[in-house]
């Protein structure tokens, strides 16, 4: 972060705003002084931005004011100055049509807020699913000194003596109500028992997956993933991150020195070991694209295939994030991968140490929660990438959350043209469906929804639920919640709305799935597909506004669903003056 590199006059980048006695410097300093700042605030010490996704409409991040205060204390202790700034917050449970529609928008907010302001480093406060990738994508495009602090998971949910996991139990309870095995009264009571404290989903859903990914990538401190939000040690971690970012600025430790290809390969393997969310695939592809690391879906398949899932957490297993922390957290998992030769041990992390130095002495305190590599939950974890004429550019499936008997299957398609069409048809007792059918949902991809909603884990028809059927193959261009489970094939690319083969599937068509061979084929002959393709008409684009921009420029899921014009780094040079 030298002056020469950034066009700043001496010392820190922030000095381009605050050093000297020109008219512009008067403007920059004087207005800031209305916050009661002493002279030495501007003497060249590192100025740290705290990028805050606090919002009461994002319940997972609603405790972030306190967390920001802890970061600030750390920054001050290390001789820096901290300024907190808000960016767009993305609450998974409230935002419609889907928080994913706004991930790229929030990343632009972050990127421009970092580059346009007098800061030398940034702490990214992230929690709910999309807030982690959005902030890291924005910071990566600035190639800036940055450290991620996750808000931490909620405490375990409990209902009638049983563990209740965010999301995972909601899907189970809702199917039980539809099957007539759970009363509405119990359903309402369970709602109050699930979310017991501040924090994000405490299953290994997308938020916990992304908190694990940033720790595995080395852009967060060890134990970032699992410390519960309300555990006092979460405050310690935030404070230590505040201290460390000041040192990182002095060392010019920018994201490109940490987010290397080796770091991404480590993260993909860790994702397999923790049974992470399919959403992690899209987000890591997008982050890699921003920092200039070439990653593809094939990397996910190749690197994850040999990794056993050892963390026994919902949705793949039994326990929750609070148990995971007490069992040793992510360092205990990474130590096993390290000893198995599955990690790049010399990858650098934000604390200045390598991955190996961080995890080689990590202990495991509970072998039920963090199992050994020789006794895993699933022997081949990771994410399976299926290809064939139904998804020439790939589709994903999480084997650890799927039913083994459906991993090789042929069945007849039951097709839903949209999520509304699904809702209209699914309760129809005359729907021609049985447990061997394959449910196909179209037009829920990046452009089709728009924003690629989490609707891929369609509930089963009630008639089958009542017969005790709990899983069927479902295929779509949608995503699913990281808390969901089942034999659900997602992210079909190209999506239906851009004319992918998915758009051509009709009721009764035969589909072949073979996960071991990575095959996903529509068994309809080419002449018939050509005839259907001729008759196909794409959906209309939104008439204007952000949604129009999104549909025109979003890339497919297989490329991370980023905007094509946001790929790459644009640096953090000081922009031209505003006055
Ligand atoms: Fe926010 Fe799950 S809804 S993390």
Helix-strand blueprint:
Elements: H1 3-6, H2 15-18, H3 23-32, E1 47-52, H4 64-77, E2 81-86, H5 103-116, E3 121-126, H6 131-142, E4 146-150, E5 157-159, E6 162-164, H7 168-179, H8 184-194, H9 206-217, H10 232-251, H11 255-258, H12 261-274, H13 279-291, H14 297-304, H15 321-326, H16 329-339, H17 355-359, E7 384-388, E8 391-397, E9 408-416, H18 419-425, E10 438-441, H19 462-466, E11 473-476, E12 488-493, E13 510-514, E14 519-522, H20 526-535, H21 545-553
Parallel strand pairs: 1-2, 1-3, 3-4, 9-10, 10-11, 11-12
Antiparallel strand pairs: 5-6, 7-8, 8-12, 9-13, 13-14
The protein binds FE2/S2 (inorganic) cluster (FES).
Mean pLDDT: 96
Described by the principal axes of the CA atoms, the overall outline is globular
Total beta-strand segments:
14
Secondary structure class reads alpha/beta
Strand order of the largest sheet: 7-8-12-11-10-9-13-14
Distance between the termini: 24 Å
Q: Give unreliable regions as ranges.
A: 1-9
- Share of residues in strands: 5-15%
Which ligands, by name, code or SMILES, are bound? FE2/S2 (inorganic) cluster
Q: What is the helix content?
A: 25-40%
* Alpha carbon gyration radius: 24 Å
Number of DSSP helical runs: 21
Instruction: Tell me the major beta sheet.
Output: 8 strands, mixed
What does this structure look like?
The two termini are 24 Å apart. This protein has 21 helices and 14 strands. Helix 18 links the parallel strand 9 (408-416) and strand 10. It is of the alpha/beta class. It binds FE2/S2 (inorganic) cluster. FE2/S2 (inorganic) cluster is lined by residues 60, 92-93, 128-129, 166, 200-201, 205, 207.
